[in-house]
């Protein structure tokens, strides 16, 4: 089947290559020429494990291509809408300008009977608004919402082997045709027994933001427990292990530390609150404001801990920051807790050196005043304080003796509860972490 994927960022590039892997003829469209040139040449424009191999394989098969020209997708039967929905500047609401822009371009070329499947995360009501526009131009075309749940760092696996597929389809014959087309697209995934849930478009749009809000709430819940642990000399990792063994709670997403960042959880909970307000339900999601506030407080607490560790002032102290991306196995620095902390340390007078295996290029453009060091050893050499802020495997596996030989002072703040405190303390380190005994 001929498929288009509109918007080739973290979501779209992976989706396009994955759909080609499933055997479809796929054309990825993006307005960013540099991105299209890079993808066409088989170079992933961002760091994502397994994507380079997948791109190479599917480009070589002849089933995958990329373009900036919407005319090239005029004959596609299914169009996946994957453009960004960032937070509006100075507001909580989602900026739908990219969705509207891409949709307008699509309306100029869309073929009779084609299906538009929205994958971007949007405020509930967006699908219905776009469907009404589509009906005016192409009454025989269909629009469904098919939200995406992939995680960066696992994007290829999550796309090809998702926990579930969600189809938000209209009632009636159009809905049945749309469902059949999507089933054809995802046939290989469905054949693995992946649950496929069909529902109305409003519910499908809500499922996505509800899932992200729940995940954000789970993280902030454990981080609230961490705040209490800090006041009572208790240990949040032991607490998480103990409550996590209850099947009803589960241990996943109970890792306390610097909290959540990235291009999705923070902006999605804010956009959800904004949308609830528009719907006259301001009170309903007010707890998400607290989820957001707890999350931000963890960053402030980390900076306070660093200052304490430096005897009350960061002025002139050399601080090595391990990690810049918002999570390991990604070069994404959107709302990165690590960079936020690094910048606060710099503003308080510390000589901050940031290192990261993949994200330094992106970090430099957003935080140009920080000092970046490619080499981990160089970042650590002579440091008065080490902050582990993104738990890349190479940082989790650092040898405390070897690192101890490089630094000026053996002091580690573990912002992700990522290493074994006993091992580091045994090597003579002062080890401190959020939510754990000093
Ligand atoms: N990044 C992720 O892990 C996931 C993202 N999402 C959602 O997917 C959507 C996209 O997110 P990302 O891929 O992270 O964003 P991104 O910013 O990496 O990619 C968006 C792409 O859309 C392109 N674009 C903008 N306007 C366009 C237009 N008119 N025509 C064609 N292309 C256009 C941009 O140039 C960019 O390459 C968002 O709604 C996000 O919330 C959902 C699940 C996972
Ligand atoms: O809508 C999206 O874009 C995606 O958002 C998240 O995926 P992602 O942002 O890639 O990363 P997560 O693994 O969810 O981590 C988000 C943040 O939470 C933090 N986190 C995660 C787990 C945890 O226990 N503690 C914690 O602080 C991570 O360090 C990271 O900063 C969701 O997990 C995906 O299901 C969703 O599709």
From TrEMBL:
InterPro entries: 6-PGluconate_DH-like_C_sf (IPR008927), NAD(P)-bd_dom_sf (IPR036291), UDP-Glc/GDP-Man (IPR017476), UDP-Glc/GDP-Man_DH_C (IPR014027), UDP-Glc/GDP-Man_DH_C_sf (IPR036220), UDP-Glc/GDP-Man_DH_dimer (IPR014026), UDP-Glc/GDP-Man_DH_N (IPR001732), UDPglc_DH_bac (IPR028357). Keywords: NAD, Oxidoreductase. NAD(+) binds at residues 30, 35, 85, 121, 152, 267, 334. It catalyses: UDP-alpha-D-glucose + 2 NAD(+) + H2O = UDP-alpha-D-glucuronate + 2 NADH + 3 H(+). GO terms for biological process: polysaccharide biosynthetic process; UDP-glucuronate biosynthetic process. Residues 320-421 form the UDP-glucose/GDP-mannose dehydrogenase C-terminal domain. The keyword NAD applies. The keyword NAD applies. Substrate binds at residues 149-152, 208, 253-257, 261, 327. This is UDP-glucose 6-dehydrogenase. It comes from Aeromicrobium tamlense.
